[in-house]
Design brief:
By secondary structure, the chain is an alpha/beta fold. It has 14 helices and 12 strands. Strands 2-8-7-6-5-3-4 form a 7-stranded mixed sheet, with helices on both faces. The chain has a 3-stranded antiparallel sheet with strand order 9-10-12. Strands 1-11 form a two-stranded parallel ribbon. Helix 1 packs antiparallel against helix 9, helix 10 runs parallel beside helix 13 and helix 11 crosses helix 13. The longest helix has 20 residues.
Length: 394
């Protein structure tokens, strides 16, 4: 059996999404910016897809949704534009992030920090959550931006973005949320809380890879990251990815339709699977279930390197991960585990299982047996587990 439990890294393209995209590869392939019929054939599909994306996040028509290549591009765009508009000009000198943002946010922040921006990295608590009061405590009259993800990609923890947004509005500070792991898992309504910028990627909710979007509130528009054309209202130059836009629109529509299933049926599967995993001695999960999205488990097995567990599972045809796919080549300790203050012998032990609406009970039953088998084998050869204090063993 082959089992895919790495859906926070990417998801399968829904067959209906692929079916919707297919004509725009070889039949209706005109460049939308050209002035002939081949081009105009693509316009209705683009318009319809954009309407679905706007509707999926409840964005009013006066606000902007700009198609990008992915959320990494969108995140870079937000932080770098804030640097050019506010930091470089001397109007502001400070931004605030959580310490567990996606690498595309952290790395960009480090870059603008090297260019003279002051960056505050807010800690998370032992449950993997951020305290909104820490945002309030660190805002100054020189703060240009607060950027806090909606859902953590490793733990599934749901951050209090509504409260953080209100704090930002109170202090007249721009607020950005990386909503990559929230779209398709939680209801998204940009009109229900103060958010100036929101980023997303289609491949996280059963759309194609290579297409994402940035939402911008009216009056809070950013400088273009890419120059050279008039596409996307002049905000993002480059020939439009017509199949990607069409696919993202259809995927958004289906994600909204499947939201109840994602939040309830998948939660039941995840909780039952998690209960069985926790019966294995010396395991623990970060972030309480009620504070996580329905599909995610970040679990540690004492005495077992996460990479070793992945090796054993992969031999059984099971895909999981140790955290962010964007950092998977860096065999360092899990940053969330470090951030919550886990002991050194646990910081390398985290394994993430992330489900989708295609995950079945049979797949999880198979995975559970493979995990138990791997735990037995790996602990039998683990020096760190063999010599762990007795209090650490059941």
């Amino acid at each position: 059996m082959r089992v895919y439990l790495d859906n926070n890294a990417t998801t399968i393209v829904d067959p209906h999404v692929f079916e919707t995209m297919e004509p725009y590869f070889v039949q209706k392939y005109g460049n939308p910016n050209s002035l002939h019929d081949f081009a105009s054939e693509t316009h209705p599909a683009i318009k319809q897809a954009m309407e679905k994306i706007y509707a999926g996040i409840h964005a009013p028509k006066e606000d902007s949704v700009v198609i990008t290549s992915c959320a990494t591009e969108s995140n870079n765009w937000v932080l770098k534009s804030i640097y050019f508009q506010y930091i470089l000009t001397g109007r502001k000198n400070h931004i605030i992030l959580s310490e567990v943002e996606h690498p595309s946010v952290i790395a960009t922040a480090k870059f603008i920090e090297s260019m003279g921006c002051r960056v505050t990295y807010l800690p998370i608590n032992s449950e993997g959550l951020i305290d909104p009061q820490s945002v309030r405590d660190n805002i100054t009259d020189k703060t240009a931006l607060v950027s806090v993800m909606w859902v953590n990609n490793e733990t599934g923890a749901i951050f209090p973005v509504e409260e953080i947004g209100n704090i930002c509005a109170e202090h007249k500070v721009l607020f950005h949320t990386d909503a990559v792991q929230a779209v398709g898992k939680l209801p998204i309504d940009v009109q229900s809380f103060n958010v100036d910028y929101l980023t997303m990627s289609a491949h996280k909710f059963h759309g194609p890879k290579g297409v994402g979007a940035l939402y911008m509130k009216k009056g809070k528009e950013l400088l273009p990251l890419l120059h050279g054309g008039s596409q996307m209202g002049g905000y993002r130059s480059g020939t439009l990815n017509v199949p990607g836009i069409v696919g993202m629109g259809r995927a958004m529509e289906q994600a909204v339709d499947a939201l109840d299933f994602e939040m309830h049926d998948i939660r039941e599967l995840r909780d039952a699977f998690e209960e069985e995993l926790l019966k294995i001695p010396d395991t623990f999960v970060v972030t309480p279930r009620e504070k996580r999205v329905a599909n995610t488990i970040l679990i540690s097995f004492r005495g077992i390197e996460g990479e070793s567990m992945l090796w054993d599972l992969n031999r059984e045809g099971i895909a999981a991960s140790t955290g962010s796919a964007c950092a998977s080549e860096d065999l360092e300790s899990n940053p969330v585990m470090e951030a919550i203050g886990a002991e050194a012998d646990l910081a390398h032990t985290a394994v993430r299982f992330s489900l989708s609406r295609y995950t079945t009970k049979e797949e999880l039953d198979y995975t559970l047996e493979a995990v138990k088998k791997a735990v037995t084998r790996l602990r039998s050869i683990s020096s760190s587990y063999a010599y762990a204090p007795e209090g650490y063993k059941n």
